[in-house]
Amino acid sequence: MTENLTIVDHPLIQHKLTILRNKDTPTAHFRQVIREVAILLGCEATKDLPLGNIEIETPLEAIKSPYLEGKKLCFVSILRAGIGLLDGLLDLIPSARVGHVGMYRDHETLEAHRYYFKTPDDLGGRQVIMVDPMLATGNTAIAAATELKNAGASALKFMCLVAAPEGVRAFNAAHPDVPIITAALDRELNDRGYILPGLGDAGDRIYGTKG
Which candidate in 21, 31, 105, 114 is catalytic? Predict the structure, then answer.
């Protein structure tokens, strides 16, 4: 299971994840903390971006210094909860391109269905990082990754806050070439497809709505 899974156990991430798990954390605080965790996870998800060198002048001398090269990467938010992570990633890399994939989960079958898809045209030349707070059954992430590949994405990663073993297995089986970056691998899914111990419905907690 861990072959294509990175669990980022940085103390700050784990501390902030506890705040997110706490059912008493208010909406405004939850929204701010998920944004902060996205920045920290984003550093791990982007650690292999290609670097070149450019010439600059420091206040003291001219040097060649590292600089990101190639096309700007693309963050793709799985609507709607993915926007909570997207905001933090754009704090980290404001120049990134942005895509959105709208997926809804049938609560009877747990299958994912697309209702919206908008991305930059040239995905094939970019590192694409797909974001959604939860990897539960894996159905939504699998469907979104398939849509992105069909649109030309070839360098794809998936970043989430919390993953379930069932979702990791399913996602790896469907997309073994797509790395998963997460803050935690939780125990299991319940009979409704929610992660245990989890943090509840991330979208409802970000936006202050009820399921």
Answer: 105
